[in-house]
Specification:
By secondary structure, this protein is of the alpha/beta class. Helix content is 45%, strand content 18%. The protein is built from 9 helices and 8 strands. Helix 2 links the parallel strand 2 (31-37) and strand 3. The longest helix is centred in the C-terminal third of the chain and has 27 residues, at 251-277.
Amino acid sequence: MMSVIITSFKEPHTIGRAILAVLNQNISAPYEILVIAPDKDTLEAANVFARKHKHIRVLADPGKGKPTALNIAFRKIRGDIVVLTDGDVYMGKNAISLLISHFADNRAGAVTGRVVSANKSNTMLNYWALLGAETFHRLRLRESHARQNVLCSGYLYAVRASLVQDIPVDTLADDAFITHCIWQKQARTIYEPQALVYVHYPTTLIDWIKQKKRTAARFYQLNKRIGVSKVSSLMNEISIGVFSLRMIKKPQHLAWFIFLIVMRAYIWARVMFDRRLWGRSFKRAWERVESSKR
């Protein structure tokens, strides 16, 4: 049996799309869907589907963050394989089948899908979203071809349930934490580029800063807890820059690229300053990104 966990928070307008994307998958094996959220509106929207489909269960969490919600859901699952995704994204056709096919290899511990930007308009932030999604696709593809382990994306990945463990409740990057736990158990993490998940990225600069500050902060947290090097994150930044140069097609792209460099430098400086000089908690880095909830 397989379990699908959809974590959500104040996403009543997108949770239905996320659930339908799972229901429309071509899944031959028995499976269940667990939707977990802390707020009434999202729970009510999910229960509309649960009343029609007996294999959907809706769980309420105490609103203490995604790690707490996942820990609750992990204790409720019945499947040997668990697929993890969010209530504000939606997966492409046959994504789940593509992910779970890799578990025929007993060495596979987790399989992650390809993140695709769902932003369409020709704006600076949407250009940045495209750069980020395409760069990480190329990085994961390169690692996959070299048969190296890849870092799973929390937007869509599947894990052997036996390898799942409780996540510290203040963890900023649950996907990175789970990935590194799987590596420590000598299991492989695999990239499946055909398993697509569509993500709406921030459309305001303020929300972009919130999201990127959180992403940067998680590497400091992981380094402190499990010794994850910040060098890999720096290399990712360099790779984004190299790939961005190749995608400059218009004069405005060059201007956007230069501003991106400035903003990425600002984000890393801000995180280092906040954490090391002010002694702020990493919880302060987690702020809701409203413009991506659509």
